[in-house]
Amino acid sequence: MSLKSNANRLAKLLGIAMVAGLTLAGCTTAASESASTSSSTSAESSESTGVKKEDIVFVASVINTTNPYFAANIAGAEALAKKLGVPIEIVDSEGSSQVQNSKIQAILAKGKTVVMFVNTVSSADAPIIVEATKAAGGFVTIWWNKPDDYEPRDVGDNFVAFQKHPGVSSGECTADRLAESIGGSGKIIALPGVQDSTTSATRVAGLEYALATRWPDVELVELRPSDWDPELAYRNSQDLITKYGSDIKGVWTADDGMQIGAMKAFEDAGRLDQVKFVSDGLYPPTIEDMRSGRGNNAIVGETFHRGWAASAIGLYTAYLAAIGEIVPSELSNDKRHSLFEIACVGPENFEDFASLDNDVDGWIDQLIINGPWDTAPFKLIGEGPEILPQY
Amino acid sequence: MATKEPGNPGVNTAMIRIREGEIAKSTNWKRLAEPTSLIATLFALIIIFSLLNPRFLSVENLRNLTDQASLPLILSVGATLVILLGSIDLSIEGIMGSAAMTFVLLSANTRDSSDFGLLAVLAAIVVGIIFGLLNGSIVTKIKVPSFVVTLGMWFVGLGVATVLYGTETMPFLTNSDLTSWASTLSVGLPNSFWAAVVVVILGVTFVGLTKTGRSVMAIGNNENIARSAGLRVDRIKLAVFAIAGALSAVAGIIAAIKLGSGSPSVGLGSLFVTIPAVVIGGTALAGGKGGVLSSTLGVFILIILNNGLILAGVSPNFQSGIAGAILIGAIVVAAASQRDRLRIAK
Q: Do B159 and A27 touch (CB under 8 A)?
């Protein structure tokens, strides 16, 4: 067999593989699902004044599909869609505002009434997405990030709500747990997320407020942003272990992903059983670490909130507006810019919350019965914007 | 008295000889000056940072630095070879993600109990080689610029890794011997670093002592002349992209071992350490000049800069800006003799 024919075959094979690879890498997963089950609810039956259910398509837009939190966003949105019998499309933003906006605009152009949950890549994306949705007659709920001065009530009924869990409460909860676990004194380090992230900044504000007002002998010796990246958290932790040595008694991270990297760095340095950790999210790997007591019960505090709950609450709120069950402009301010409860958990009670992951469908049933603002453990607790503590 | 070319009374050959001598001296000086000034820069950084924080020179930090340098060192060998060709490989992070996911899913992990042992390593490296061959094939057969091809392959790699990741929770390696391998010390330094040393030695040997390695330099210098001299340019390019893909896969495997888990984003940020390190080391972006060893200097300058600024207590708000300013200053001094190599200072 000649070299040239081999080369031609190789080129053809590579061409086919390339097309296959690009297809695999396609990022918008359109999953039109018919409902296999559909509970009878008031929301489903009273559609006379709004859009008909068969004219609606759900859209859930997430920052990427591999972060556990965003993967849970998808799971919650799909579970709700299945329960209500509405088709759903998932938008994978691949971490890019540009990708996110162009995919959403393409879906809006298809013509069906879009009911959308968006976990925005950056705050600045919210107005672009909302205006495009409004122009297309859709309904959108944004989670976590939007510009401070861009409020749903100023835009109209198509921007149904902005929703989030309060970061300050999260930071305070974990700060208290960490300070208590080290006996109320000693040096700690903190690994926030991306430096200009509002979510991270509010959690840090809660941490600093708790330390300043309740734990004067706990010294936060360094804040080292680790961009929500476990690998960067690992490297930064290595450097901080070198810098402060055995003085470090506790580690605060703004989410569980970074905690994974930080714990591995302390484990590699042989110090995991001498340091306590707290973080936000109670991800499944964290639950396993708490169950196994890894590192002399190294994890002492977490906050509990779930991606599947956020997407289901967000989508269901927008859905109620679409079918005419609620009129956003008639809602109180706390239902347009909402803060939802975030649970503060520790080794003594984390199993109570972890078990919720085993019955997402059951929780969705409760959501449909109780509505988006009154379903435990994620009840509406206040009105945004979140106020940073003054002290 | 000046001699003149016989039959051509206008040409002063003595002046030509003098000029040739000057060029030869200048070339020799440049050859020595660049690594010397890079090493001097490295030592200057070490001295400054150890004055700012004595712990910088501790054994513990030496282990940190070598551990943190391990992945960029491995990646820089592949990147140097590709850049010596006059091409570029931007697919590093995508290949790392795909290889890491392949490795973790075929090793004992929290998702299932299947454990293929060393075959998992082999499979992940094969994935890297396939990506490299795809890069090389499209560059050589379809004549698409490497910048475009490898940029696309970056996202194909991430896409494949994302498909492998699926919608389940993050897979964690369950073999504690495996997860502690990278940080375990051998002769006082972490295994991850020794793996990088082996790769660097192989890279230096390949470029300096093999015919194919020397051919890489020739192709980078002038592809047309290399082709007319009978070199199998396309095959050499294909081989180099395959090697780079394999090394990206090795880096992905070690990154997964270090974190103890698999994630498509395991290579996040690697590209923007690797390519600058190669260029800082003096490898010409246009190809044909440079080398693996000089890239290792570039890697250590970048790693020491980041580590040193943290130990010196520089606020994160200023760190990026200060690191950039120091880097520019270092390169202005270190690469002054070789500015023409960068060929982008026009």
A: yes
